[in-house]
Amino acid sequence: MGSMTTVVLFVTGVLALVDKTPNANDVKAGWTAFAVFVGLGLAVVLLGMSLSRHLKKARNSAERGVFDEGPERPAQH
């Protein structure tokens, strides 16, 4: 065995002795975690709606010719 394998086995053994896993009945997420989860979901929805609106505005402005096309413009698909 190499020295790295010995170190990994030693660290794994020490962690198994030190790490005390709680019982399933002792762990509860609670309402705060649920509120954070819902808040993050709402933030994703709002950011998606904002992105959609801004992309529509940019497309409409490009169609009206608001942006300077310059001498070189890549082909549109």
Characteristic terms for this protein:
77 residues, mainly alpha, 0% strand
Structure, briefly:
This protein is mainly alpha-helical and 77 residues long.
What does this entry look like structurally?
The model has no long low-confidence stretch (mean pLDDT 85). The chain has helices at 3-18, 30-64. The protein is elongated, with a radius of gyration of 28 Å. Helix content is 66%, strand content 0%. It has 77 residues and is mainly alpha-helical.
Characterize the biggest β-sheet. none
Helicity, as a percent range: 55-70%
The overall pLDDT average reads 85
Strand tally: 0
Tally of individual helices:
2
Distance between the termini: 59 Å
Low-confidence stretches: none
Specify the structural class.
mainly alpha
**Element-level helix/strand string:** HH
Into which percentage range does the β-strand content fall?
under 5%
What's the overall geometry?
Answer: elongated
What is the CA-atom radius of gyration, in angstroms? 28 Å
Ordered list of secondary-structure elements with their pairings:
Layout: H1 3-18, H2 30-64
